[in-house]
């Protein structure tokens, strides 16, 4: 990236006139506290939601929405030319329309036209506006031109309305921007990928369950990275207590049976599926409807049945020409011993294209911010990923996935 005069990456934060403008203050704080030089460009109407003194105090830089201030510096050209990243949050339907059609009536839209750096839009609006064909066409146009448009979250909107259109969590928008600033390629643009994350729970009774230690951190890192690389992302999340990754559609499940149904449904039009979740191998044959009480004698043994093997089923369906049939299927193998031997056997047994094999236990992998793994490649050489942030493993895996996807001539 191009370094600023003080060696800090230059970020332009555009703020359009939506009620979610106040959330951009938190996004601005995350940028400045992580060492970025941020210039805030609100639209004139956005200043009715959050005033200029707030943006100036939080950024440490002058703030204006007008092209007529400091005209000798040609701000509508210079700000875009010098930026390493432009992010607009919130991006209203009006702002998206202007950006898609190349209008430049104020400082923000003029900056968008002159920017030659990555551009990220984080839309926020009412559901009807987000789902309107005009907005969908504008979003498609911006994505075709290389911009990252982060799909809004679903939740409470202005007033009593609820639905898709809510600005994603600012910390999650920041993570996408961080990945974009790091130079993430746009090799998944136009693709739909499905990621499973977390760990399933198999009920014993209304209180107890059979589960595992998976936190969902690796699956969510895969989702964030795929969004930054241009993909439409669906996450099937089992018992994950993390903020939704910005730009990803999250389907929440609990058990292996629930996950199977959700993954097969999401994979109907998916180009790739990555099964990063820790799916329980077994479940109780019958769960009690009431809490099982302690008695004076030995507890009754819990009879177990096998859970569906979702990864193997996806591979079998593809082999048999059944739908869903993603072009690339990747799995994860968490092992405590004989890691590579067990991983190679699993790769052959399941029939997937890629298998991420890592050692778990004693503070490794589960619940930690870092990971180390070997990615086994069907018909190819293994790829070793040294210990580092889980985003690094995500990048390595998506690079291998992208290389196996067919590309239009």
Helical segment count: 13
The CATH homology group name of the largest domain: CoaB-like
Please state the second-level CATH architecture of the largest domain: 3-Layer(aba) Sandwich
What's the end-to-end separation, in Å? 31 Å
Q: Proportion of β residues?
A: 15-25%
Largest sheet, if any?
8 strands, mixed
- Major sheet strand order: 12-11-8-13-16-17-18-19
Instruction: Specify the overall morphology.
Output: globular
Helix vs. strand class: alpha/beta
Mean pLDDT: 91
Report on the structure:
- The protein has 13 helices and 19 strands.
- With 409 residues, the chain is of the alpha/beta class.
- A hairpin with a 5-residue loop joins β9 and β10.
- The N terminus is likely disordered.
List the topology elements:
Blueprint (H helix, E strand, L loop, with lengths): L9 E6 L8 H10 L3 E6 L9 H8 L15 H8 L2 E7 L1 H8 L6 H8 L4 E5 L3 H5 L1 H12 L3 E2 L3 E4 L5 E5 L3 H12 L10 E7 L3 E2 L5 E2 L6 H12 L3 E7 L9 E6 L2 H11 L5 E4 L6 E3 L19 E3 L3 H10 L8 E8 L3 H12 L3 E6 L10 E8 L5 E7 H15 L5
Parallel strand pairs: 1-2, 1-3, 3-4, 4-5, 8-11, 8-13, 11-12, 13-16, 16-17
Antiparallel strand pairs: 6-7, 9-10, 14-15, 17-18, 18-19
Helix pairs in contact: 1-2, 1-8, 3-5, 4-7, 8-9, 9-13
Essential attributes:
alpha/beta, Rossmann fold, eight-stranded mixed sheet, five-stranded parallel sheet, 13 helices, 19 strands, 32% helix
Task: Give a summary of the structure in a few sentences.
This protein has helices at 24-33, 52-59, 75-82, 93-100, 107-114, 127-131, 133-144, 170-181, 217-228, 256-266, 310-319, 339-350, 390-404; strands spanning 10-15, 37-42, 85-91, 119-123, 148-149, 153-156, 162-166, 192-198, 202-203, 209-210, 232-238, 248-253, 272-275, 282-284, 304-306, 328-335, 354-359, 370-377, 383-389. The protein has 409 residues and is an alpha/beta fold.
């Amino acid at each position: 990236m191009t370094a600023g005069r003080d060696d800090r990456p230059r970020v332009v934060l555009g703020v359009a006139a939506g009620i979610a403008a106040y959330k951009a203050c938190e996004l601005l704080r995350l940028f400045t506290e992580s060492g970025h030089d941020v210039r805030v460009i609100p639209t004139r109407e956005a200043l009715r939601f959050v005033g200029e003194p707030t943006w100036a105090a939080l950024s440490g830089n002058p703030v204006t929405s007008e092209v007529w201030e400091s005209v000798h510096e040609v701000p509508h050209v210079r700000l875009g030319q010098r930026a390493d990243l432009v992010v607009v949050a919130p991006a209203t339907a009006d702002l998206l329309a202007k950006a898609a059609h190349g209008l430049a009536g104020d400082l923000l839209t003029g900056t968008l036209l002159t920017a030659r750096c990555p551009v990220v839009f984080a839309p926020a609006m009412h559901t009807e506006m987000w789902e309107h064909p005009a907005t969908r066409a504008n979003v498609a146009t911006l994505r075709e031109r290389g911009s990252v448009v982060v799909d809004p979250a679903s939740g409470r909107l202005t007033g009593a309305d609820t639905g898709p259109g809510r600005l994603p969590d600012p910390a999650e928008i920041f993570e996408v921007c961080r990945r974009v600033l790091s130079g993430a390629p746009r090799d998944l643009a136009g693709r739909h990928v499905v990621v499973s994350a977390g760990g399933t729970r198999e009920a014993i009774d209304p209180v107890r369950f059979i589960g595992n230690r998976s936190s969902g951190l690796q699956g969510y890192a895969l989702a964030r990275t795929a969004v930054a690389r241009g993909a439409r992302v669906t996450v099937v999340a089992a018992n994950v207590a993390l903020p939704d990754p910005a730009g990803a559609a999250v389907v929440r499940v609990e058990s292996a049976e629930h996950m199977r149904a959700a993954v097969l449904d999401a994979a109907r039009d998916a180009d790739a599926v990555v099964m990063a979740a820790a799916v329980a191998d077994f479940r109780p044959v019958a769960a009690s409807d009431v809490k099982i009480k302690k008695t004076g004698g030995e507890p009754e043994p819990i009879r177990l049945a096998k859970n569906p093997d979702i990864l193997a089923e996806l591979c079998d369906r593809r082999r048999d020409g059944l739908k869903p049939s993603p072009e690339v299927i990747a799995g994860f193998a968490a092992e405590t011993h004989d890691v590579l031997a067990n991983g190679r056997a699993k790769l052959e047994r399941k029939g997937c294209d890629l298998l991420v094999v890592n050692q778990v236990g004693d503070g490794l992998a589960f619940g930690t911010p870092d990971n180390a793994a070997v990615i086994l490649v069907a018909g190819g050489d293994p790829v070793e990923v040294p210990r580092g942030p889980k985003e690094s493993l995500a990048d390595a895996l998506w690079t291998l996935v992208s290389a196996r996807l067919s590309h239009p001539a």
